[in-house]
Design goal:
Elements (H helix, E strand, L loop, with lengths): L1 H20 L18 E5 L2 E4 H15 L7 H27 L6 H10 L4 E2 L5 E2 L1 H11 L3 H23 L5 H12 L4 E7 H7 L5 H10 L5 E2 L2 E10 H7 L4 H10 L5 E2 L2 E9 L2 H10 L6 H7 L3 E9 L6 H7 L11 E3 L2 E11 L2 E2 L2 H33 L4 H8 L4 E7 L15 H8 L10 E3 L2 E11 L2 E2 L2 H33 L4 H7 L3 E4 L5 H5 L5 H8 L6 E5 L3 E7 L9 H30 L2 E3 L1 H9 L4
Helix pairs in contact: 1-3, 1-22, 2-3, 3-6, 6-22, 7-22, 9-18, 10-15, 11-15
Length: 621
Protein backbone atom coordinates (compact mmCIF):
# COMPACT_ATOMS: atom_id res chain seq x y z
CA UNK A 1 0.00 0.00 0.00
CA UNK A 2 2.68 2.48 1.03
CA UNK A 3 4.84 1.74 -2.00
CA UNK A 4 1.85 1.98 -4.26
CA UNK A 5 0.87 5.38 -2.86
CA UNK A 6 4.46 6.65 -2.76
CA UNK A 7 5.13 5.56 -6.32
CA UNK A 8 2.16 7.50 -7.64
CA UNK A 9 2.64 10.56 -5.47
CA UNK A 10 6.07 10.99 -7.06
CA UNK A 11 5.11 10.30 -10.65
CA UNK A 12 1.40 10.74 -11.07
CA UNK A 13 1.40 14.08 -12.86
CA UNK A 14 2.29 12.94 -16.37
CA UNK A 15 -0.03 9.96 -16.13
CA UNK A 16 -2.94 12.05 -14.93
CA UNK A 17 -2.47 14.64 -17.69
CA UNK A 18 -2.40 11.97 -20.37
CA UNK A 19 -5.13 9.88 -18.80
CA UNK A 20 -7.65 12.67 -19.18
CA UNK A 21 -6.13 14.76 -21.96
CA UNK A 22 -8.32 13.24 -24.65
CA UNK A 23 -11.39 14.77 -23.02
CA UNK A 24 -10.32 18.20 -24.20
CA UNK A 25 -8.83 16.93 -27.47
CA UNK A 26 -9.76 19.67 -29.93
CA UNK A 27 -10.93 19.18 -33.49
CA UNK A 28 -8.21 21.41 -34.87
CA UNK A 29 -5.61 19.45 -36.82
CA UNK A 30 -7.51 16.16 -36.83
CA UNK A 31 -6.89 15.74 -40.55
CA UNK A 32 -7.62 12.34 -42.05
CA UNK A 33 -7.82 10.68 -38.67
CA UNK A 34 -10.77 8.50 -39.64
CA UNK A 35 -9.78 7.73 -43.19
CA UNK A 36 -6.38 6.07 -42.88
CA UNK A 37 -5.95 2.58 -44.25
CA UNK A 38 -2.47 1.97 -42.96
CA UNK A 39 -1.18 -0.72 -40.57
CA UNK A 40 -3.06 -1.33 -37.35
CA UNK A 41 -1.17 -0.57 -34.15
CA UNK A 42 -3.74 -1.98 -31.69
CA UNK A 43 -6.94 -3.99 -31.80
CA UNK A 44 -9.56 -3.67 -29.03
CA UNK A 45 -12.44 -6.08 -29.41
CA UNK A 46 -13.57 -5.58 -32.99
CA UNK A 47 -12.03 -2.11 -33.34
CA UNK A 48 -8.76 -1.87 -35.29
CA UNK A 49 -6.87 1.35 -34.62
CA UNK A 50 -4.53 2.55 -37.35
CA UNK A 51 -1.05 3.89 -36.83
CA UNK A 52 -2.24 7.23 -38.22
CA UNK A 53 -4.77 7.67 -35.40
CA UNK A 54 -2.08 6.81 -32.83
CA UNK A 55 0.47 9.20 -34.35
CA UNK A 56 -1.93 12.13 -34.46
CA UNK A 57 -2.96 11.65 -30.84
CA UNK A 58 0.66 11.18 -29.76
CA UNK A 59 1.58 14.43 -31.51
CA UNK A 60 -1.33 16.22 -29.82
CA UNK A 61 -0.23 14.99 -26.37
CA UNK A 62 3.41 15.96 -26.98
CA UNK A 63 2.45 19.47 -28.10
CA UNK A 64 0.30 19.88 -24.99
CA UNK A 65 3.10 18.81 -22.62
CA UNK A 66 5.81 20.77 -24.46
CA UNK A 67 4.08 23.98 -23.42
CA UNK A 68 5.63 23.53 -19.97
CA UNK A 69 8.96 21.86 -20.75
CA UNK A 70 11.02 20.20 -23.44
CA UNK A 71 10.61 16.40 -23.37
CA UNK A 72 13.59 14.05 -23.48
CA UNK A 73 13.50 10.66 -25.18
CA UNK A 74 12.49 8.72 -22.04
CA UNK A 75 9.61 11.13 -21.48
CA UNK A 76 8.56 10.81 -25.13
CA UNK A 77 8.50 7.02 -24.73
CA UNK A 78 6.30 7.46 -21.66
CA UNK A 79 3.97 9.70 -23.66
CA UNK A 80 3.80 7.06 -26.42
CA UNK A 81 2.93 4.31 -23.94
CA UNK A 82 0.33 6.46 -22.18
CA UNK A 83 -1.18 7.43 -25.54
CA UNK A 84 -1.60 3.76 -26.46
CA UNK A 85 -3.18 3.06 -23.06
CA UNK A 86 -5.56 6.01 -23.52
CA UNK A 87 -6.67 4.72 -26.91
CA UNK A 88 -7.13 1.23 -25.49
CA UNK A 89 -9.19 2.51 -22.54
CA UNK A 90 -11.40 4.68 -24.76
CA UNK A 91 -12.25 1.85 -27.10
CA UNK A 92 -12.92 -0.53 -24.21
CA UNK A 93 -15.49 2.03 -23.00
CA UNK A 94 -16.94 2.31 -26.51
CA UNK A 95 -17.17 -1.49 -26.84
CA UNK A 96 -19.09 -1.65 -23.55
CA UNK A 97 -21.28 1.32 -24.47
CA UNK A 98 -22.18 -0.31 -27.78
CA UNK A 99 -23.08 -3.57 -26.05
CA UNK A 100 -25.36 -1.68 -23.60
CA UNK A 101 -26.91 0.43 -26.40
CA UNK A 102 -25.76 3.69 -24.78
CA UNK A 103 -26.41 6.57 -27.15
CA UNK A 104 -26.25 10.40 -27.20
CA UNK A 105 -29.39 12.34 -28.09
CA UNK A 106 -29.60 14.63 -31.11
CA UNK A 107 -30.31 17.54 -28.75
CA UNK A 108 -26.94 17.12 -27.03
CA UNK A 109 -25.11 16.71 -30.35
CA UNK A 110 -26.75 19.85 -31.72
CA UNK A 111 -25.78 21.80 -28.61
CA UNK A 112 -22.14 20.67 -28.83
CA UNK A 113 -21.92 21.68 -32.48
CA UNK A 114 -23.58 25.07 -32.03
CA UNK A 115 -21.41 25.92 -29.02
CA UNK A 116 -18.14 24.92 -30.70
CA UNK A 117 -16.13 28.10 -31.33
CA UNK A 118 -14.64 26.57 -34.47
CA UNK A 119 -17.98 26.92 -36.21
CA UNK A 120 -18.77 30.47 -35.08
CA UNK A 121 -18.40 33.38 -37.49
CA UNK A 122 -16.72 36.32 -35.73
CA UNK A 123 -17.88 38.71 -38.43
CA UNK A 124 -21.50 37.78 -37.64
CA UNK A 125 -21.39 38.21 -33.88
CA UNK A 126 -19.96 34.72 -33.20
CA UNK A 127 -23.06 33.03 -34.57
CA UNK A 128 -23.00 29.45 -35.82
CA UNK A 129 -21.98 29.35 -39.50
CA UNK A 130 -23.24 26.34 -41.47
CA UNK A 131 -20.69 26.84 -44.26
CA UNK A 132 -17.74 26.82 -41.82
CA UNK A 133 -19.21 23.71 -40.19
CA UNK A 134 -19.63 21.70 -43.41
CA UNK A 135 -16.25 22.76 -44.80
CA UNK A 136 -14.59 21.55 -41.61
CA UNK A 137 -16.55 18.27 -41.54
CA UNK A 138 -15.84 17.43 -45.18
CA UNK A 139 -12.15 18.29 -44.87
CA UNK A 140 -11.49 16.39 -41.66
CA UNK A 141 -14.07 13.60 -41.52
CA UNK A 142 -15.31 13.06 -45.05
CA UNK A 143 -18.96 13.02 -43.98
CA UNK A 144 -21.25 14.47 -41.34
CA UNK A 145 -22.12 10.94 -40.20
CA UNK A 146 -18.47 10.23 -39.34
CA UNK A 147 -18.21 13.51 -37.46
CA UNK A 148 -21.39 12.88 -35.46
CA UNK A 149 -20.10 9.42 -34.53
CA UNK A 150 -16.92 11.08 -33.33
CA UNK A 151 -18.84 13.53 -31.11
CA UNK A 152 -21.00 10.71 -29.72
CA UNK A 153 -17.95 8.67 -28.80
CA UNK A 154 -16.20 11.67 -27.27
CA UNK A 155 -19.30 12.52 -25.19
CA UNK A 156 -19.69 8.96 -23.86
CA UNK A 157 -16.03 8.79 -22.91
CA UNK A 158 -16.15 12.25 -21.32
CA UNK A 159 -19.14 11.37 -19.12
CA UNK A 160 -17.60 8.13 -17.84
CA UNK A 161 -14.05 9.37 -17.26
CA UNK A 162 -15.28 12.62 -15.71
CA UNK A 163 -16.76 10.58 -12.88
CA UNK A 164 -13.41 8.96 -12.05
CA UNK A 165 -11.49 12.20 -12.54
CA UNK A 166 -13.58 14.67 -10.57
CA UNK A 167 -16.28 12.98 -8.53
CA UNK A 168 -14.37 10.51 -6.31
CA UNK A 169 -13.13 11.83 -2.95
CA UNK A 170 -11.63 10.00 0.01
CA UNK A 171 -11.76 10.78 3.72
CA UNK A 172 -9.48 13.22 5.53
CA UNK A 173 -8.51 10.45 7.97
CA UNK A 174 -7.17 8.30 5.13
CA UNK A 175 -5.02 11.19 3.90
CA UNK A 176 -3.69 11.75 7.44
CA UNK A 177 -2.71 8.10 7.82
CA UNK A 178 -0.98 8.01 4.44
CA UNK A 179 0.84 11.29 5.07
CA UNK A 180 2.06 10.11 8.49
CA UNK A 181 3.31 6.83 7.06
CA UNK A 182 5.15 8.62 4.27
CA UNK A 183 6.73 11.30 6.46
CA UNK A 184 7.47 9.28 9.62
CA UNK A 185 11.24 8.94 10.14
CA UNK A 186 13.53 6.94 12.45
CA UNK A 187 17.22 6.07 12.62
CA UNK A 188 18.57 2.50 12.82
CA UNK A 189 21.71 0.43 13.39
CA UNK A 190 21.85 -2.49 10.96
CA UNK A 191 24.16 -5.52 10.95
CA UNK A 192 23.99 -8.35 8.43
CA UNK A 193 25.37 -11.79 7.58
CA UNK A 194 25.95 -12.65 3.90
CA UNK A 195 24.54 -16.15 3.27
CA UNK A 196 26.21 -16.46 -0.12
CA UNK A 197 29.60 -15.80 1.46
CA UNK A 198 28.97 -18.53 4.06
CA UNK A 199 27.85 -20.92 1.35
CA UNK A 200 31.04 -20.32 -0.66
CA UNK A 201 33.08 -21.51 2.34
CA UNK A 202 31.45 -24.97 2.32
CA UNK A 203 32.65 -27.83 0.11
CA UNK A 204 30.21 -30.25 -1.57
CA UNK A 205 29.23 -32.82 1.07
CA UNK A 206 30.50 -36.41 0.80
CA UNK A 207 28.09 -38.72 -1.00
CA UNK A 208 27.73 -40.90 2.13
CA UNK A 209 26.58 -37.84 4.09
CA UNK A 210 24.11 -36.99 1.33
CA UNK A 211 22.72 -40.56 1.25
CA UNK A 212 22.44 -40.68 5.05
CA UNK A 213 20.59 -37.37 5.08
CA UNK A 214 18.27 -38.62 2.31
CA UNK A 215 17.41 -41.85 4.17
CA UNK A 216 16.64 -39.89 7.33
CA UNK A 217 14.38 -37.44 5.49
CA UNK A 218 12.90 -39.53 2.66
CA UNK A 219 9.37 -38.36 3.30
CA UNK A 220 10.42 -34.77 2.50
CA UNK A 221 11.49 -35.63 -1.05
CA UNK A 222 8.61 -36.23 -3.36
CA UNK A 223 7.10 -35.07 -6.59
CA UNK A 224 4.03 -32.93 -6.08
CA UNK A 225 1.06 -33.41 -8.33
CA UNK A 226 2.15 -33.87 -11.96
CA UNK A 227 0.11 -33.62 -15.10
CA UNK A 228 0.51 -34.42 -18.77
CA UNK A 229 -1.34 -32.14 -21.17
CA UNK A 230 -1.67 -31.17 -24.82
CA UNK A 231 -2.34 -27.72 -26.21
CA UNK A 232 -2.61 -25.53 -29.29
CA UNK A 233 -1.35 -21.99 -28.83
CA UNK A 234 -1.82 -19.30 -31.48
CA UNK A 235 -0.75 -15.67 -31.35
CA UNK A 236 0.16 -12.98 -33.85
CA UNK A 237 3.87 -13.88 -33.87
CA UNK A 238 3.03 -17.52 -34.57
CA UNK A 239 0.77 -16.58 -37.50
CA UNK A 240 3.29 -14.05 -38.83
CA UNK A 241 5.84 -16.79 -39.38
CA UNK A 242 3.36 -18.70 -41.54
CA UNK A 243 2.50 -15.75 -43.79
CA UNK A 244 4.29 -15.28 -47.11
CA UNK A 245 4.92 -11.65 -48.11
CA UNK A 246 5.74 -11.16 -51.78
CA UNK A 247 8.22 -8.66 -53.22
CA UNK A 248 5.31 -6.91 -54.96
CA UNK A 249 3.56 -6.46 -51.61
CA UNK A 250 6.69 -4.89 -50.15
CA UNK A 251 7.20 -2.56 -53.13
CA UNK A 252 3.55 -1.41 -53.10
CA UNK A 253 3.71 -0.69 -49.38
CA UNK A 254 6.98 1.22 -49.77
CA UNK A 255 5.53 3.44 -52.51
CA UNK A 256 2.36 4.08 -50.49
CA UNK A 257 4.21 4.85 -47.25
CA UNK A 258 7.24 6.79 -48.44
CA UNK A 259 6.25 9.66 -46.18
CA UNK A 260 6.72 7.36 -43.18
CA UNK A 261 10.31 6.67 -44.14
CA UNK A 262 11.22 10.32 -44.54
CA UNK A 263 14.25 11.52 -42.58
CA UNK A 264 13.33 15.13 -41.71
CA UNK A 265 15.55 18.05 -42.62
CA UNK A 266 18.01 18.98 -39.88
CA UNK A 267 19.76 22.26 -39.30
CA UNK A 268 22.73 23.15 -37.13
CA UNK A 269 21.67 26.23 -35.22
CA UNK A 270 23.50 28.73 -33.02
CA UNK A 271 21.83 31.40 -30.92
CA UNK A 272 22.63 34.73 -29.31
CA UNK A 273 20.42 35.51 -26.33
CA UNK A 274 19.75 38.98 -24.90
CA UNK A 275 18.01 40.20 -21.74
CA UNK A 276 17.06 43.49 -23.37
CA UNK A 277 15.72 44.51 -26.78
CA UNK A 278 18.17 47.41 -26.97
CA UNK A 279 21.25 45.18 -26.79
CA UNK A 280 19.67 42.77 -29.26
CA UNK A 281 19.00 45.50 -31.83
CA UNK A 282 22.47 46.92 -31.39
CA UNK A 283 24.04 43.48 -31.99
CA UNK A 284 21.79 42.74 -34.99
CA UNK A 285 22.84 46.00 -36.68
CA UNK A 286 26.53 45.25 -36.21
CA UNK A 287 26.83 41.63 -37.48
CA UNK A 288 27.11 39.97 -40.88
CA UNK A 289 27.33 36.41 -42.30
CA UNK A 290 31.04 36.13 -41.57
CA UNK A 291 30.74 36.93 -37.87
CA UNK A 292 31.03 34.00 -35.47
CA UNK A 293 28.35 34.08 -32.78
CA UNK A 294 30.58 32.53 -30.12
CA UNK A 295 33.21 35.24 -30.54
CA UNK A 296 30.53 37.97 -30.36
CA UNK A 297 29.33 36.60 -27.01
CA UNK A 298 32.89 36.51 -25.65
CA UNK A 299 33.34 40.20 -26.41
CA UNK A 300 29.94 41.32 -25.09
CA UNK A 301 29.26 40.50 -21.43
CA UNK A 302 25.50 40.94 -21.76
CA UNK A 303 25.22 38.54 -24.71
CA UNK A 304 24.84 34.77 -24.19
CA UNK A 305 25.94 32.22 -26.81
CA UNK A 306 24.00 28.95 -27.09
CA UNK A 307 24.55 26.13 -29.58
CA UNK A 308 21.42 24.10 -30.31
CA UNK A 309 23.22 21.48 -32.39
CA UNK A 310 21.49 19.59 -35.22
CA UNK A 311 17.75 19.97 -34.75
CA UNK A 312 14.46 19.36 -36.55
CA UNK A 313 11.49 21.71 -36.80
CA UNK A 314 9.53 20.23 -33.91
CA UNK A 315 12.50 20.66 -31.57
CA UNK A 316 12.39 24.45 -31.81
CA UNK A 317 10.19 26.96 -30.02
CA UNK A 318 7.20 27.84 -32.17
CA UNK A 319 8.50 31.41 -32.56
CA UNK A 320 11.74 30.09 -34.12
CA UNK A 321 10.44 27.49 -36.58
CA UNK A 322 9.44 29.62 -39.56
CA UNK A 323 12.31 32.17 -39.47
CA UNK A 324 15.01 29.51 -38.89
CA UNK A 325 13.81 27.12 -41.59
CA UNK A 326 13.63 29.93 -44.17
CA UNK A 327 17.34 30.70 -43.80
CA UNK A 328 20.15 29.54 -46.06
CA UNK A 329 23.50 28.37 -44.66
CA UNK A 330 25.31 31.06 -42.62
CA UNK A 331 22.28 33.37 -42.62
CA UNK A 332 20.73 34.64 -39.40
CA UNK A 333 17.27 35.74 -38.29
CA UNK A 334 16.00 39.13 -37.28
CA UNK A 335 15.62 39.82 -33.56
CA UNK A 336 12.96 37.47 -32.18
CA UNK A 337 11.08 38.11 -28.93
CA UNK A 338 9.89 35.25 -26.70
CA UNK A 339 8.57 35.07 -23.14
CA UNK A 340 12.13 34.69 -21.82
CA UNK A 341 13.97 37.37 -23.82
CA UNK A 342 15.30 38.29 -27.28
CA UNK A 343 17.11 36.01 -29.71
CA UNK A 344 19.09 35.96 -32.96
CA UNK A 345 19.54 32.52 -34.52
CA UNK A 346 22.00 31.46 -37.21
CA UNK A 347 22.01 28.36 -39.42
CA UNK A 348 25.53 27.01 -39.99
CA UNK A 349 24.68 23.71 -41.65
CA UNK A 350 21.69 22.20 -43.49
CA UNK A 351 21.07 18.46 -43.95
CA UNK A 352 18.26 18.08 -46.47
CA UNK A 353 15.37 15.71 -45.84
CA UNK A 354 15.51 12.40 -47.64
CA UNK A 355 13.64 9.12 -47.84
CA UNK A 356 15.19 5.86 -46.74
CA UNK A 357 15.92 3.46 -49.57
CA UNK A 358 13.80 0.32 -49.94
CA UNK A 359 16.67 -1.91 -48.79
CA UNK A 360 16.91 0.06 -45.54
CA UNK A 361 13.27 -0.55 -44.62
CA UNK A 362 12.51 -3.82 -46.42
CA UNK A 363 12.46 -5.93 -43.24
CA UNK A 364 10.31 -3.41 -41.39
CA UNK A 365 7.77 -3.28 -44.22
CA UNK A 366 7.72 -7.07 -44.52
CA UNK A 367 7.17 -7.38 -40.78
CA UNK A 368 4.31 -4.86 -40.83
CA UNK A 369 2.56 -6.50 -43.77
CA UNK A 370 2.86 -9.93 -42.18
CA UNK A 371 1.50 -8.60 -38.90
CA UNK A 372 -1.38 -6.82 -40.57
CA UNK A 373 -2.31 -10.03 -42.39
CA UNK A 374 -1.89 -11.93 -39.12
CA UNK A 375 -4.60 -9.80 -37.55
CA UNK A 376 -7.06 -10.86 -40.27
CA UNK A 377 -5.88 -14.49 -40.21
CA UNK A 378 -6.29 -14.55 -36.44
CA UNK A 379 -10.04 -13.88 -36.63
CA UNK A 380 -10.50 -16.47 -39.39
CA UNK A 381 -8.67 -19.22 -37.45
CA UNK A 382 -10.53 -18.35 -34.26
CA UNK A 383 -13.88 -18.82 -36.01
CA UNK A 384 -12.78 -22.04 -37.73
CA UNK A 385 -11.59 -23.58 -34.46
CA UNK A 386 -14.82 -22.56 -32.76
CA UNK A 387 -16.81 -24.32 -35.50
CA UNK A 388 -14.70 -27.49 -35.25
CA UNK A 389 -15.00 -27.66 -31.47
CA UNK A 390 -18.79 -27.23 -31.81
CA UNK A 391 -18.80 -30.12 -34.31
CA UNK A 392 -16.90 -32.39 -31.88
CA UNK A 393 -13.36 -32.30 -33.30
CA UNK A 394 -10.49 -33.16 -30.92
CA UNK A 395 -7.15 -31.36 -30.64
CA UNK A 396 -5.41 -33.75 -33.04
CA UNK A 397 -8.06 -33.23 -35.72
CA UNK A 398 -8.01 -29.44 -35.28
CA UNK A 399 -4.21 -29.45 -35.52
CA UNK A 400 -4.20 -31.55 -38.71
CA UNK A 401 -7.04 -29.78 -40.51
CA UNK A 402 -5.86 -26.24 -39.77
CA UNK A 403 -2.13 -26.97 -39.88
CA UNK A 404 -1.56 -25.77 -36.31
CA UNK A 405 1.16 -27.08 -33.98
CA UNK A 406 -0.03 -29.43 -31.24
CA UNK A 407 2.31 -29.57 -28.24
CA UNK A 408 2.38 -32.53 -25.83
CA UNK A 409 3.87 -32.04 -22.35
CA UNK A 410 4.68 -35.10 -20.22
CA UNK A 411 4.23 -35.05 -16.42
CA UNK A 412 5.03 -31.48 -15.45
CA UNK A 413 5.04 -30.88 -11.70
CA UNK A 414 2.52 -28.29 -10.56
CA UNK A 415 4.96 -26.28 -8.43
CA UNK A 416 7.49 -26.10 -11.28
CA UNK A 417 5.10 -24.79 -13.94
CA UNK A 418 6.26 -21.16 -13.89
CA UNK A 419 9.96 -22.16 -13.80
CA UNK A 420 9.65 -24.80 -16.50
CA UNK A 421 10.94 -24.73 -20.08
CA UNK A 422 7.49 -24.01 -21.47
CA UNK A 423 7.04 -21.08 -23.82
CA UNK A 424 6.97 -17.92 -21.68
CA UNK A 425 3.81 -16.76 -23.42
CA UNK A 426 1.76 -19.59 -21.88
CA UNK A 427 3.32 -19.38 -18.41
CA UNK A 428 0.34 -17.33 -17.27
CA UNK A 429 -2.31 -17.85 -14.61
CA UNK A 430 -5.11 -18.62 -17.07
CA UNK A 431 -3.16 -21.45 -18.67
CA UNK A 432 -1.95 -22.73 -15.30
CA UNK A 433 -5.53 -22.96 -13.99
CA UNK A 434 -6.75 -24.76 -17.08
CA UNK A 435 -4.02 -27.39 -16.66
CA UNK A 436 -3.99 -27.91 -12.88
CA UNK A 437 -7.65 -27.22 -12.08
CA UNK A 438 -9.05 -28.92 -15.16
CA UNK A 439 -10.38 -32.48 -15.37
CA UNK A 440 -9.16 -35.35 -17.53
CA UNK A 441 -10.35 -35.11 -21.13
CA UNK A 442 -12.87 -32.35 -20.36
CA UNK A 443 -14.66 -30.46 -23.13
CA UNK A 444 -12.44 -28.21 -25.23
CA UNK A 445 -12.92 -24.47 -25.28
CA UNK A 446 -10.97 -21.44 -26.55
CA UNK A 447 -9.31 -19.20 -23.97
CA UNK A 448 -8.48 -15.78 -25.44
CA UNK A 449 -5.49 -13.86 -24.06
CA UNK A 450 -3.57 -10.75 -25.12
CA UNK A 451 -2.45 -11.15 -28.76
CA UNK A 452 -3.64 -14.75 -28.95
CA UNK A 453 -5.55 -17.75 -27.61
CA UNK A 454 -4.99 -21.33 -26.47
CA UNK A 455 -6.87 -24.62 -26.18
CA UNK A 456 -5.62 -27.13 -23.62
CA UNK A 457 -6.53 -30.72 -22.69
CA UNK A 458 -5.43 -32.59 -19.55
CA UNK A 459 -4.20 -36.07 -20.58
CA UNK A 460 -2.85 -37.60 -17.34
CA UNK A 461 -2.83 -36.82 -13.59
CA UNK A 462 -0.27 -38.35 -11.19
CA UNK A 463 -0.63 -37.45 -7.51
CA UNK A 464 2.21 -37.00 -4.97
CA UNK A 465 5.00 -39.59 -5.37
CA UNK A 466 8.24 -40.12 -3.42
CA UNK A 467 11.49 -39.45 -5.25
CA UNK A 468 14.36 -41.89 -5.61
CA UNK A 469 17.80 -40.92 -4.25
CA UNK A 470 18.96 -40.04 -7.77
CA UNK A 471 15.88 -37.87 -8.40
CA UNK A 472 16.30 -36.07 -5.07
CA UNK A 473 20.11 -35.75 -5.21
CA UNK A 474 20.35 -31.98 -5.95
CA UNK A 475 17.57 -31.16 -3.50
CA UNK A 476 19.38 -33.06 -0.75
CA UNK A 477 22.66 -31.18 -1.38
CA UNK A 478 20.81 -27.85 -1.14
CA UNK A 479 19.16 -28.89 2.13
CA UNK A 480 22.42 -30.10 3.66
CA UNK A 481 24.09 -26.80 2.79
CA UNK A 482 21.10 -24.86 4.09
CA UNK A 483 21.36 -26.62 7.45
CA UNK A 484 25.06 -25.79 7.64
CA UNK A 485 24.38 -22.13 6.87
CA UNK A 486 21.58 -21.93 9.44
CA UNK A 487 23.79 -23.54 12.08
CA UNK A 488 26.58 -21.02 11.37
CA UNK A 489 24.12 -18.11 11.49
CA UNK A 490 22.63 -19.32 14.78
CA UNK A 491 26.09 -19.45 16.34
CA UNK A 492 26.86 -15.88 15.21
CA UNK A 493 23.50 -14.57 16.47
CA UNK A 494 23.97 -16.24 19.89
CA UNK A 495 27.37 -14.56 20.26
CA UNK A 496 25.88 -11.24 19.12
CA UNK A 497 23.03 -11.35 21.64
CA UNK A 498 25.38 -12.44 24.47
CA UNK A 499 27.61 -9.42 23.88
CA UNK A 500 24.55 -7.13 23.67
CA UNK A 501 23.45 -8.43 27.08
CA UNK A 502 26.95 -7.70 28.37
CA UNK A 503 26.51 -4.05 27.31
CA UNK A 504 28.88 -4.05 24.31
CA UNK A 505 28.13 -1.42 21.64
CA UNK A 506 26.04 -2.67 18.68
CA UNK A 507 28.48 -1.56 15.96
CA UNK A 508 31.48 -2.82 17.93
CA UNK A 509 29.92 -6.31 18.16
CA UNK A 510 29.36 -6.29 14.38
CA UNK A 511 33.01 -5.47 13.81
CA UNK A 512 34.17 -8.19 16.24
CA UNK A 513 32.03 -10.82 14.48
CA UNK A 514 33.04 -9.55 11.01
CA UNK A 515 29.50 -8.63 10.06
CA UNK A 516 28.57 -5.88 7.62
CA UNK A 517 27.10 -2.93 9.51
CA UNK A 518 25.84 0.61 9.06
CA UNK A 519 24.16 3.41 10.99
CA UNK A 520 21.36 5.27 9.23
CA UNK A 521 20.32 8.87 9.70
CA UNK A 522 16.60 9.45 10.18
CA UNK A 523 14.94 7.81 7.20
CA UNK A 524 11.37 7.04 6.14
CA UNK A 525 9.73 3.76 5.22
CA UNK A 526 10.55 4.02 1.53
CA UNK A 527 14.26 4.47 2.33
CA UNK A 528 14.19 1.30 4.47
CA UNK A 529 12.43 -0.69 1.73
CA UNK A 530 15.03 0.51 -0.78
CA UNK A 531 17.70 -1.08 1.42
CA UNK A 532 16.21 -4.53 0.78
CA UNK A 533 13.67 -4.97 3.56
CA UNK A 534 10.08 -6.12 3.06
CA UNK A 535 7.12 -3.81 3.66
CA UNK A 536 5.96 -6.07 6.49
CA UNK A 537 9.32 -5.88 8.32
CA UNK A 538 9.57 -2.14 7.64
CA UNK A 539 6.21 -1.52 9.29
CA UNK A 540 7.26 -3.71 12.21
CA UNK A 541 10.40 -1.70 13.03
CA UNK A 542 8.56 1.61 12.60
CA UNK A 543 5.93 0.46 15.07
CA UNK A 544 8.62 -0.54 17.62
CA UNK A 545 10.02 1.54 20.48
CA UNK A 546 13.53 2.94 20.70
CA UNK A 547 16.31 0.38 21.48
CA UNK A 548 14.17 -2.57 20.28
CA UNK A 549 16.15 -5.33 18.51
CA UNK A 550 14.70 -7.14 15.49
CA UNK A 551 15.88 -9.98 13.26
CA UNK A 552 15.01 -10.37 9.60
CA UNK A 553 15.97 -13.03 7.07
CA UNK A 554 15.93 -12.75 3.28
CA UNK A 555 17.09 -15.20 0.61
CA UNK A 556 20.68 -13.96 0.77
CA UNK A 557 21.01 -11.98 4.05
CA UNK A 558 20.34 -12.29 7.76
CA UNK A 559 19.82 -8.94 9.50
CA UNK A 560 19.89 -7.67 13.06
CA UNK A 561 18.31 -4.21 13.31
CA UNK A 562 18.28 -1.89 16.32
CA UNK A 563 15.76 0.96 16.47
CA UNK A 564 17.98 3.91 17.37
CA UNK A 565 15.45 6.76 17.74
CA UNK A 566 11.82 7.63 18.36
CA UNK A 567 9.52 8.57 15.47
CA UNK A 568 9.62 12.04 13.98
CA UNK A 569 6.94 13.53 11.72
CA UNK A 570 7.31 17.06 10.38
CA UNK A 571 4.06 18.51 9.06
CA UNK A 572 4.25 20.43 5.80
CA UNK A 573 0.95 21.86 4.57
CA UNK A 574 2.00 21.88 0.89
CA UNK A 575 3.11 18.24 1.04
CA UNK A 576 -0.11 17.30 2.82
CA UNK A 577 -2.26 18.90 0.12
CA UNK A 578 -0.21 17.17 -2.57
CA UNK A 579 -0.83 13.85 -0.84
CA UNK A 580 -4.55 14.62 -0.55
CA UNK A 581 -4.88 15.50 -4.24
CA UNK A 582 -2.77 12.54 -5.26
CA UNK A 583 -4.82 10.09 -3.20
CA UNK A 584 -8.01 11.18 -4.95
CA UNK A 585 -6.34 10.99 -8.36
CA UNK A 586 -4.70 7.62 -7.66
CA UNK A 587 -7.86 5.95 -6.45
CA UNK A 588 -9.83 7.46 -9.31
CA UNK A 589 -7.38 5.89 -11.76
CA UNK A 590 -7.24 2.63 -9.79
CA UNK A 591 -11.03 2.32 -9.88
CA UNK A 592 -11.05 3.09 -13.60
CA UNK A 593 -8.32 0.49 -14.19
CA UNK A 594 -10.40 -2.14 -12.39
CA UNK A 595 -13.20 -1.41 -14.84
CA UNK A 596 -10.88 -1.64 -17.85
CA UNK A 597 -9.42 -4.96 -16.62
CA UNK A 598 -12.91 -6.41 -16.55
CA UNK A 599 -13.58 -5.04 -20.02
CA UNK A 600 -10.29 -6.46 -21.36
CA UNK A 601 -11.50 -9.95 -20.46
CA UNK A 602 -14.59 -9.37 -22.58
CA UNK A 603 -12.89 -7.42 -25.38
CA UNK A 604 -9.33 -8.82 -25.88
CA UNK A 605 -6.62 -6.27 -26.62
CA UNK A 606 -3.86 -7.03 -29.13
CA UNK A 607 -0.98 -4.62 -29.68
CA UNK A 608 1.11 -4.64 -32.84
CA UNK A 609 4.30 -4.74 -30.80
CA UNK A 610 6.58 -4.69 -33.83
CA UNK A 611 5.01 -1.51 -35.22
CA UNK A 612 4.89 0.15 -31.80
CA UNK A 613 8.49 -0.77 -30.92
CA UNK A 614 9.65 0.50 -34.33
CA UNK A 615 7.95 3.81 -33.55
CA UNK A 616 9.69 3.97 -30.14
CA UNK A 617 13.07 3.22 -31.74
CA UNK A 618 12.64 6.12 -34.16
CA UNK A 619 11.84 8.73 -31.52
CA UNK A 620 14.29 11.63 -31.68
CA UNK A 621 15.72 13.50 -28.73
Amino acid sequence: MLQYIKKYIKGWFLGIILFFIFISFTFWGVGDIFRGGDSHIIKIGKYKISRDIFLKEFDSNVRYLKKNKKLNKVELENVANETLINIKDRYLILNAAKMMDIDVSEKILRKKIYENELFQNKLKGNKFDKNIYFNFVNLNFGSEEAYLDYIKNQTIIEIITNYFDKQIFYSHNLTNKIYNKIEEKKSFQISSIDKNYLKSKFKVPDKKIILKYFNENKKNYFFGERRSFSYIFVNLDYLKKKINVSEDDILDAYNNQKQDFLIPEKRKVEQLFFDSEEIGKKTLNSINKENKFEEIAKKEKKVTYITLGLIEKDQLFDEFVEPVFKLKENEFTKLIKTSIGWHILKVTKIIKKKSKELNEVRNTIKENIALDKAYDEFDIILNEIDDKITNGSNLEEISNKLNLDLVNVKLLEKKLFFNSELNDEIKINNFYKEVYEGELNSDLFIEEIEDGFFIVRVDEIVNDQLKTFEEAYNDVINDVNEERINEEINNIIKKFKKKLDDGVDFIKISDLLKMDNRFTKKINREDVINQGFSLEFTNKIFESKKNTIHENETSDKYYIVKVESDSEINFDNEKFNNVKNSVNKIYGIENFQQITKILENKYPVMVNKSLFNDFIDRLQY
